[in-house]
Amino acid sequence: MSKPRLLNRPEDAAPLERDLLVRMHDLMVKARVLEERLIQMYKQGHGYFWIGGPGEEAFNVPLGLLMKKGQGPAYDYLHAHYRQSATLLALGEEPIGALRQMKNTASDPYSGGRNFAGHFSKREWNIAPVSSPIEVQYTMAPGTALAQKRHGGDGITIVTGGDAGTAEGDFASCLVWSSRPGMELPVLIIVTNNQWGISTPAGTQHGETHVADRGRAFNIRTKTIDGNDPINAWRELKEAMEYVRRERKPFLLEAMVSRLYGHSSASGANFVGGEQDCLARFEERLLNDGVLTREQMNSLRSRYTEEMAALARQVREEPLPGPETIWNHIYAERK
Amino acid sequence: MANMAQAIRMALHYAEENLGVTDIFGEDVGAPLGGVFTATQGLKTAWNTPLDERGIIGMAIGLAMAGQRPVAEIQFADYIYNTIDLLKIAGNTCWASHGDWNLPMVVKTPVGSGIRGSLYHSHSFDATATHIPGWKIVMPSNPLDAYGLMISACQELNPVMYLEPKALLRIKGEERIPGEPEDDKSLSKLIDAPLGDRSQWKPQWPAELSAYAVPIGKGKVVRPGSHVTVVSYGRTLPLCKRAADELASSGVDAEVIDMRSLWPYDWELIKGSVEKTGRVLYVNEDTEVTNFGEHLVRRTVEELFYKLLAPPRLLAGKFVPGVGLADTLEMASVPQLGDITAAIRALASEQP
Ligand SMILES: Cc1ncc(C[n+]2csc(CCOP(=O)(O)OP(=O)(O)O)c2C)c(N)n1
Q1: All domains of chain B, ordered by start, with CATH?
Q2: Mutate to test the interface with A, among B47, B59, B69, B97 (most CBs of A within 10 A)
Q3: How far, in Å, CA of B130 to CA of B22, rounded?
C-alpha cells in the first residue's frame, strides 16, 4: 500500500525553465485579471452571479499546461468544477468566452447564455460540462477513464472538486469505481482544498487529517500538496499524471489552495484578508530570483486589465439569446 | 415465442453485434446471473458493478461522453431515486452545453407491481421519468415491442429510459420476433443459462435476428373500437385489452391504445381516437397524484373538450406510501382487471 506523502517545502522544488516560469506567471495574471473583471461585471449588473477561481491559479495553470489536449479517448478528459478558468486559459482558451458566459449572451461558447460563469464545456478539448451540483463529476470520471483504458495509449481522466464536496457519496463512488481490483482506472482524482464550504470551515465538518488519506483505504496512491506554489504544483502534477498515464491506475491528489474572494457573489465576492495570495507569493519569488522585474509584472497586469475591460465593453453590446432558443438542443439530432 | 426478458436479451445481443453497444452493466448484470430477471444473460459486454446506483448512472454518462454506447441497469426502479440529480444532468447535458455534448446512453430498469414485490420492488417510475426533460422514455407491454424498442433505444443519440414492466417479463408474446426460432423450447435451449454451474456455458444466439425497430414516439392501436378509447402502457395494457375483449359481448366496443413511448408520445394517435369515440380512459399503475395520466387528461381537456361526450378519466394506483405485500393489499392498491372493466363500462355508459 502506498503511503501518503505530505506537503513538501517550497525550497525542495527544483526551479523550472525560465520560459515556463514566465509563461505560468503570464497565465496566472491573465486568469486573475479575468476573474477580477468577471466580479466587476457582476457588481455593475452585467451578470447575475459570479463564482470562480481567484486564489487557485497556482494549481490550475500548471494543470492546464500539463494536460494532453484534444478530442476523444486518446486525449485527457477534464471533469472540472467551477473554479477553473485558469485551467481553461492555460489550455489556450480565449478569455472572452468567460465574459460572454457571465453576460449570458447568445455568443456564450459554453452554454449559449444558459449557464453560470465558470461553467465551462468544450467537447473539442474533452472538457465535460461543469454542472452546478457539487461532486457529480466524480461519478462520471470513471466512465471516461474506462473508455480510455480500453482505448489504450496514455490519455487520462482528470476530475477536480472542492474539499467540502468530498462528503458527497459521489466522491466515494469515484474511489470505489476507479480502484476495483484488476480493473483500476486511469483517473487523476483531484481535490482543491480551500478549507471552506461556502461559510463552513472544513475543520468543523471533516474528521480526516487529510482528504487524501481516504485514498489509502482503496490502495490508491495519494498525496497532499501545497497548491499555492506553481512550481511545486507543476512538479507534483507532472509526477502524478505520469503515474496515471503509465500505470493506468488512479491517483488522489489533494492541493491546498486559497479562496481570495470568498465563495461567490452570494457572499459578496470581496477580497478577503488572511488567505495566502499565490500570485503575490510567486511574484515575490520571480523578483528575488531575477526572473522578472516588478515593472515587467506591473505592466503585464495593466495590459491584461485594459484588454479585459475592452472585451467586457464589447460583450456588453452583444445580444442575449432569442427566447425561441429555449427549444434548441433539447435533443441531439442525426445530421 | 420469446418472453420479454428473452426478447430484451436478444435485442441487446443484436445491439452488441451491430449497433455499437459497448457495455451492459449494473448490479448482478454480468455472469453468473445475467440480471435478476435474466435479461442480460450470456451477453458478451455484460459486467457486474459495485452496489452503487449513482456510480452506475455516472459511469454511463462518462462512457457516453467518451464515445462508447452504454446500457446501464438499475436493478429495480425503486432504487433509482438516489440517482435523480444525475438523471437530470444526463437529460440536460445537450441543452446546457448548447448542443456541444450528447449522451447516447440507455438506462433500463424494471418497474411496477405484479410480482408480490411488497413496499419496494413495486414502484412505478413513469411520473418521475416524464418529469425529467431531455430523456426519451419507453415502456413495452409485449416481447416484440420490447425487442423493437430496445433496438431503437440503442440507436439513439440521446439518453433513453427503458422501463420494463416486471409483471410481464416472463410472459410469452403472441407475435414472433423476426429471427427467433419456431418453437419456444429450442429458443430456451439456445439462450437460457442452465441452472447450477454456468461457468462454461455460452449462449447460441439465433443467427437471423434483425434490426426490427419500434420507433420511439409511436403508439399502437391494439384493439380497434368505436365507443370509448382506453390508453395504457406496460403491465396494465394487456389488462385493458382483456377488459375490452370481455366487454365486447355486452355491447361496449373499446379501442385500446398502447402508448409504448411515454416521451415523446403519440398524441396524434390518441387524439384521432378520442375524436372518434368522444370518451377516453387513461390507465396506469403509478400513484394517482401528479400522475403522467393527469398530464394526458389535461391535454385532452384543453385540446379536445368540444369533442368529448364525457369527462376524460384516469384509473391509476392509489396514493398510498407503498404496495403492501398481502395479496389483498396489492390488489387494492393498483388497477386490476375488474377495476379496468368497471371503469370502461362506467365511462361508456356515462350520460351528462
Ligand atoms: C449537491 C449540491 N449541494 C449544495 C450545493 C450548494 N453549494 C454550492 S458551492 C458549495 C460549497 C462547496 O464547497 P467545496 O466543495 O469545498 O468547493 P469550493 O466551492 O470551496 O471550491 C455548496 C454547498 C450544490 N451546488 N450542490
Answers
A1: 4-191 (3.40.50.970), 220-349 (3.40.50.920)
A2: B97
A3: 27
Separation of CA A78 and ligand 1 centre (Å): 19
Looking at residue B321, what is its pLDDT? 97
Cα distance between residue B20 and residue B38, in whole Å? 22
CB of A128 within 8 Å of a chain B CB? The answer is: yes
| Window B:73-92, CB contacts with A under 8 Å | 85-86, 89
Residue-level pLDDT at A5:
46
User: Do B45 and B23 contact (CB within 8 A), yes or no?
Assistant: yes
* Mean pLDDT, 10 residues at a time, chain B of 352 residues: 97 98 98 96 98 98 98 98 98 98 98 95 97 98 98 98 98 94 90 92 95 98 98 98 97 98 98 98 98 98 98 98 97 98 98 86
Taking the centre of ligand 1 as the mean of its atom positions, its distance from the CA of residue A188, in whole angstroms, is 20
Residue of A110, A139, A177 best to disrupt the B interface, most CBs of B under 10 A: A139
Q: Which three cell numbers stand for residue A249?
A: 491506475
pTM value? 0.96
Residue A195 CA: nearest ligand 1 atom is 16
Q: Tell how strand B136-138 and strand A200-201 pair up.
A: unpaired
Query: Would you state the cell numbers that stand for residue A166, as one nine-digit string?
Result: 468530498
C-alpha cell at B55: 456510480
In this structure, what are the phi and psi dihedrals at residue B105, rounded to the nearest 5 degrees? -135, 150
Instruction: Encode pLDDT of B114-130 as tens digits.
Output: 999 999 999 999 999 99
> Residues of A with CB below 8 A from B50's CB?
173, 176-177, 180
Strand A196-197 relative to strand A200-201, pairing: antiparallel
* SS3 assignment, position B313: strand
Residues of B acting as catalytic residues: 121
Nearest to B99 among A73, A146, A329 (CB): A329
Distance from C-alpha of B4 to C-alpha of B142, rounded to nearest angstrom: 6
The C-alpha cell at B154 is 440503442
Q: Which residue, among A108, A151, A326, A331, would best test binding to B if mutated, counting the most B CBs under 10 Å from its CB?
A: A331
Which residue from B61, B86, B101 is facing A123, i.e. has the nearest CB? Answer: B101
Residue B174: phi, psi to the nearest 5?
-105, -15
Decide: residue B185, CB within 10 A, 0-12 exposed, 13-18 middle, 19+ buried: exposed
Nearest residue in A to B49, CA atom: A177
Give the Cα separation of B334 and B332 in Å (integer): 6
Look at residues B42, B30, B20 and name the one whose alpha carbon lies nearest to residue B206.
B42
Mean pLDDT for all residues in chain B: 97
User: How much is the pLDDT for B308?
Assistant: 98
Which residue from B60, B61, B98 is facing A329, i.e. has the nearest CB?
A: B98
The answer to whether the CB of A170 falls within 8 A of the CB of A90 is no
Give phi and psi for B269, each to the nearest 5: -65, -45
* Helices marked H in B192-326: 236-248, 267-277, 292-304
Amino acid, single-letter form, for residue A306 = E
Q: Bridge partners of B331?
A: none
How distant is the Cα of A140 from the closest Cα of chain B, in angstroms? Answer: 4
Count of A-B CB contacts under 8 Å: 139
Give pLDDT tens digits for A72-81: 999 999 999 9
Residues of A whose CB is below 8 A from B134: 330-331
Q: All 3 cell numbers of residue B341?
A: 372493466
Q: Which three cell numbers stand for residue B141?
A: 407491454
**If contacts are CB pairs under 8 Å, which of residues 169-208 in chain A contact chain B?**
169-170, 173, 176-177, 180
> If you compute the radius of gyration of chain A from its CA atoms, what whole number of angstroms results?
19
The reply to whether B63 touches chain A by the CB within 8 Å rule is yes
CB atoms within 10 A of CB A284: 11
